[in-house]
Amino acid sequence: MDWNLLALSFTAVFVSELGDKSQLAAIALGGSSSSPRAVFLGTAAALLLASLLGVLIGEGTAQVLPERLVKAVAAVGFAILAVRLLWPGKSAD
Amino acid sequence: MQALPKPGPIDCFSDLLFIPLVSISSPAPRPATSQPTDGDKPAESVSRSAFWRIFTSTFITIFLAELGDKTQVTTLLMSAQSQAPMMVFIGAGTALVTTSLIGVLLGQWLARRVSPAALDTAAGAMLLGITVWLLWDIAHL
């Protein structure tokens, strides 16, 4: 076991993730959702899969995935979640 | 707001992604470790479908937002330089689980202190902010 590498990767990712998009989303969704457990598991699973892909595909990720398109879809997703929270009546009925 | 009786589960769970009625009527959401002896727990099949709906919408948005983001850049840089990419993944994965747990717990902590309407507005504003952040990323890629 390479403890230095483990500690280094933990610290690097932990610091870079503090206050990043996904943690802010976890705060917003975890506070407003009726199932914080689902929010936690969904967030953790998404982050794990994204970083597993990072390890497996490595430098190929940039070529495989159209990054702008992926982020644009994510932006639309967050916009929908935001609109549903801000104007619940319009979409709920 | 005083503790109102929970609204009917069917009304709440008809919402695709969120359950505004529940978040309005229950200022303190059930903690992540909910007791199985909870009296007013909705029918298990209904709560399970709501769980998966929330899980899926959270998973998809976070996953897409995080693909190719700086965490992944860090991860792949380290795995490229290292002989043990799995150690990098374990370290990165533990950090990611920890930050999302902190995020959700912080959200719940806030939910107990802020009025439900203000909380929904703040959460919506945060999500809109993330949307703008992502659009900013796209414009500057």
Task: Describe the overall structure.
The complex is a heterodimer of chains A (93) and B (141). The radius of gyration of chain A is 16 Å and the shape is globular. By secondary structure, chain A is mainly alpha-helical. The termini of chain A are far apart. Chain A contains 6 helices and no strands. Helix content of chain A is 84%, strand content 0%. The mean pLDDT of chain A is 82. In chain A, helix 2 runs antiparallel to helix 3. Chain A has one domain. With 141 residues, chain B is an all-alpha fold. Chain B has one domain. Helices cover 70% and strands 0% of the residues of chain B. In chain B, helix 4 packs antiparallel against helix 5. The longest helix of chain B has 29 residues. Chain B is globular, with a radius of gyration of 19 Å. The relative contact order of chain B is 0.10. At the A-B interface, helix 1, helix 2, helix 3, helix 5 and helix 6 of A face helix 2, helix 3, helix 4, helix 5 and helix 6 of B.
Q: What structural keywords apply?
A:
heterodimer, A: 93 residues, mainly alpha, 84% helix, globular, B: 141 residues, disordered N terminus
Shape estimate of chain B: globular
Largest sheet of chain B: none
Helical content class of chain B: over 70%
Distance linking N and C termini of chain A: 55 Å
Instruction: Tell me the domain tally of chain A.
Output: 1
Count of domains of chain B: 1
Portion in helices of chain A: over 70%
Q: Which residues of chain A form runs of ≥5 with pLDDT under 50? A: none
Rg of chain A from C-alpha positions?
Answer: 16 Å
Helical segment tally of chain B? 6
